[in-house]
Amino acid sequence: MNATSPAPAAVELVRVRKEFGSAVGVADVSLKIGQGEFLTLLGPSGCGKSTLLGMIAGFLTPTAGKIVVDGVDITDVEPYRRDIGMVFQSYALFPHMNVFDNIAFGLRMRKLPKADIAVEVRRAIAMMKLEGFEERRVSQLSGGQRQRVALARAIVIRPKVLLLDEPLSALDKNLRAQMQVELSELHRKTGLTTIFVTHDQGEALSLSDRIVVMNRGEVQQVAAPVELYRTPANGFVASFIGEINALPVARYERAGAEAALVLPGAGRLSAAAPAHWDFTHGVEVRAFLRPEHVRPARPGEQGPNILRGVVAAHIYQGSHTITRVEMEGLGLIETRVTGADIVGTHPVGAPIALVFDLGEAVLLAAR
Ligand SMILES: Nc1ncnc2c1ncn2[C@@H]1O[C@H](COP(=O)(O)OP(=O)(O)OP(=O)(O)O)[C@@H](O)[C@H]1O
Ligand SMILES: [Mg+2]
Prior knowledge:
This protein is of the alpha+beta class. The protein has helices spanning 49-57, 99-109, 114-127, 143-155, 173-190, 201-207, 225-230, 235-240, 341-345; strands spanning 9-20, 23-34, 38-42, 64-69, 72-73, 84-87, 161-165, 193-198, 210-215, 218-223, 245-246, 250-255, 258-263, 267-272, 284-289, 294-296, 306-316, 320-327, 331-338, 351-356, 362-365. The chain has two domains: 9-240, Rossmann fold; 245-365, CATH 2.40.50.140. A hairpin with a 2-residue loop joins strand 9 (210-215) and strand 10 (218-223). Residues 49-50, 89, 165 line the site of magnesium ion.
């Protein structure tokens, strides 16, 4: 696991734990977040993302562990004295207040002079492109505009750390894509250390410097997006990041430079063994292979790594098609091909041969 970060730590979590009665919400998480880093917490619903953010913000008290910001232990510091900006899953704006007052709230709590408040609020309004909306009530804004107000309210206090808990989850697909770009820009302009929560892996891959994958309160892997995608640390991460085919448990065979998987009831796949495949001959492994590394065989194609099945479904996605193939001994396997021709050449129910590029597979020891 890669738990190191490139810059000096802006936030350090030391064995942070949260129990709710007998249930464990977050289990002993240790993590260093670099100055100016955009770090994403990614994981399924209930894995502890909001609980971890809540402890950093100070709304939740850890059962055990320590939270350090800029070298200072803030575990027992009250939330409003932590210099942490937060946008909640539900925005949590004041609906009866106008945009200006919502954004000014944190500064008024901090008892800043009125003139300074006006300057700071105007700066945040400009940064979030909300000019002209100052007097509008929040209840009269669109989802995207509310989102901007929530972000403006979080950055106006010039926080040391910005916490974002699924800030885009309520937005439709297009607006969400647009706000992702704006979040990136905001991060670039402010250089704010940001901890972003999502359960959308595409969003995590596109926005983050590093991603923390969580499951059941535990950190599964901490890595840069490309590293996470290419070398997932375990089956959970492999299955959670991007589309992937999980092959059944297979026997690993090694003869010189060649490695092979013997898949019971399905056949044999082989490849020139990549250097990091250091498994012992005869052990049981699981292979994970992305749909772009499985392709339909050309007509009449012969050779190793070709297995046969029957087309079960096509999922047309514009630039490409994901085709699901029912294969004996393997179950459903997905292949990803450019365009939509496959829908005509291999209709549902037709036989199809697939070529597996085993050398691209992620191999993990079967437990
Ligand atoms: N106040 C609470 N009392 C009891 N259990 C809680 C409480 N808050 C959270 N939990 C439990 O702790 C676990 C983690 O919850 P958390 O809200 O952190 O998940 P999450 O990763 O943010 O999920 P989501 O993606 O759905 O927002 C869940 O099992 C949840 O039921
Ligand atoms: Mg949550």
